[in-house]
Write a structure and sequence with these properties.
The protein is of the alpha/beta class and 307 residues long. It has 10 helices and 14 strands. Helix 2 crosses helix 3. Bound molecules: adenosine-5'-triphosphate (ATP) and magnesium ion. The site of magnesium ion has 2 residues, from helix 1.
């Protein structure tokens, strides 16, 4: 059973003049870290709001763990960390978690047991009695994660959890998320930090103007074309002729040649042909495109459509 499944989910605002989400069909398997990417205004928050039952779809359906989102009890299996959340600064971390636990309907005994476990999970053991005002941004975000985890949800929606956090703090959060995933939790992430998303996500979806435009693992998305920087000695005429014949793109970069091949077989074919003609190859350097490069290409409609 899928953790999240949407079918033709559509949300219009202002009697249809604003299309926030259009025919959005997506599924997220349980136990995965799934990231939703898209430029500002693409509809990411709208999707989360519909799934959380805060806003209502114009059309289409969505389920969480097989249950329709209109059944509110399904949201008891969900935790949520909002973007730019604020906790009252005069409270201690323990008090914040207690407060949210109470709102989740937990009793005092359960919370007394749960809160120290949560603080340990987010590396804040020993900080429970410290006021939130003294926390760094990284500590605040980890407190936010503990808050989202208070009722042991199976599915976590996290809106920009590493925004404004330094690299060490981001790594701590990444490790916490990976630990949760390894315990079977499903994590739905909304982030603009693409290098972070590339590291942590099992799967990624890219949306634009309310529509889903790409989905797949990071590997699948960025290996649509493999690129290699070829270093050869002497003239590049032979290499250029092979590329032309094979329909491969080639560009020159400071007397090295960047060629795009569709697979390993094509790379080896090029090497064989060069060697047959006694071209001396001095280097073959794989060039991986980053998720960020791919994202920009997709948004600017330059990326190739996978077969
Ligand atoms: N309550 C609302 N009433 C009218 N229009 C709305 C409302 N909420 C969102 N929109 C519009 O719907 C579109 C999608 O907005 P949404 O907030 O979902 O985008 P987003 O992908 O989360 O953007 P960001 O990256 O900036 O957070 C935007 O054009 C936005 O202006
Ligand atoms: Mg948003």
């Amino acid at each position: 059973m899928k953790a999240i499944e949407t079918k033709g989910l559509t949300k219009h605002y202002q009697r249809g003049s604003i299309i926030a989400l259009q025919d959005f069909t997506l599924s997220v398997a349980p136990g995965r870290i799934f990231s939703l990417l898209g430029p500002n205004g693409a509809g990411k928050t709208t999707l989360i709001k519909l799934l959380l039952g805060i806003a209502f779809p114009t059309r289409g359906t969505a389920t969480l763990f097989g249950e329709d989102i209109s059944n509110h009890h399904v949201h008891s299996r969900v935790g949520y960390l909002a973007e730019n959340h604020r906790f009252p600064e005069f409270l201690t971390a323990n008090q914040v978690l207690y407060y949210y636990g109470k709102m989740n309907g937990m009793d005092k005994a359960a919370l007394n047991e749960r809160i120290p476990q949560l603080l340990e999970l987010v590396n804040l053991s020993g900080w429970g009695d410290t006021k939130i005002r003294k926390f760094s941004k990284g500590m605040l975000q980890r407190t936010g994660l503990a808050q989202a985890m208070i009722s042991e949800p199976d599915l976590l929606f996290l809106d920009e959890p590493t925004d404004g956090i330094d690299p060490v703090g981001r790594r701590q959060i990444r490790e916490i998320l990976e630990g949760l995933r390894d315990r079977g939790k499903t994590i739905f992430l909304n982030s603009h930090l693409l290098s972070e998303v590339e590291r942590v996500s099992d799967e990624v979806a890219i949306m634009k103007k309310g529509r889903l435009v790409r989905t797949g693992s990071v590997e699948e998305l960025i290996s649509v074309k493999q690129q290699y920087l070829l270093q050869i000695e002497g003239s590049a005429e032979i290499l250029k002729a092979i590329c032309l014949e094979q329909g491969m793109s080639i560009s020159e970069q400071e007397s090295q040649y960047l060629v795009s091949v569709s697979d390993d077989a094509q790379l080896n074919y090029v090497i064989d042909r060069l060697r047959q003609q006694e071209v001396l190859i001095t280097g073959i350097i794989p060039r991986k495109i980053s998720l960020e490069d791919f994202f920009i290409d997709v948004i600017e409609e330059k990326a190739e459509v996978p077969a």
